[in-house]
Design brief:
two-stranded antiparallel sheet; 6 helices
Length: 192
């Protein structure tokens, strides 16, 4: 958004005062206005990808005036790169060179983590319990080669909303034996 404001300012769609006002607001809010990896190569690749998905039109949204936007289709690569070079220079005058505060999503907020063995083991244990529970419900789970197969090779998965033929007490909302969607007592980010 900050780069788009610089592009709009270069085109005289935003005054210098409006441009500074937007950038100051973004900076005070801790939003990312720049990133070291945002360079001409990335800009070129992103622009090429956008042109493929938008019928060959850029449709770059830029503020014009404040609170509204205009979509630009006639921006050249040279103009985009010139705006980026100017934007990078302007960012040197802002705290953190325009980088945002906490600009990256903490994986724990999303429920996904990298290299966190404890959570992986807990999820695998829950999956194992669910598989064992399915196997113990005779009749509708297909055991093939010692593995429980639900919904495979034409066999329907008979568990609807986690309930299987009166086993609601064992599978509440799909959670085997009271296990919730989370680990260590957390459900959707909150301590249960």
């Amino acid at each position: 958004m900050a780069y788009s404001a610089t592009l709009a300012n270069n085109r005289k769609l935003l005054s210098d005062e409006e441009h500074h006002r937007i950038l100051t607001l973004f900076s005070r809010a801790g939003l990312s206005m720049d990133h070291p990896q945002f360079d001409e190569d990335i800009l070129d690749k992103g622009t090429a990808a956008i042109l493929k998905t938008r019928d060959g039109k850029l449709r770059a949204a830029v503020p014009n005036p404040l609170g509204s936007c205009t979509f630009l289709n006639d921006v050249t690569v040279e103009e985009l790169n010139a705006a980026l070079r100017r934007h990078k220079e302007i960012m040197q005058g802002y705290p953190r060179n325009g980088e945002g505060l906490e600009a990256f999503v903490d994986a724990s907020d999303t429920g996904y983590t990298e290299n966190n063995q404890k959570e992986v083991e807990a999820l695998e244990a829950a999956a194992e319990k669910a598989g064992n529970l399915n196997a113990s419900m005779d009749g509708d789970s297909v055991v093939h080669g010692g593995k429980v197969m639900n919904g495979v090779n034409g066999h329907a998965n008979v568990h609807v909303n986690g309930h299987c033929h009166g086993f609601a007490d064992k599978l509440a909302n799909g959670a085997a034996q009271g296990l919730t969607n989370g680990v260590d007592g957390f459900t959707n980010g909150a301590k249960a």
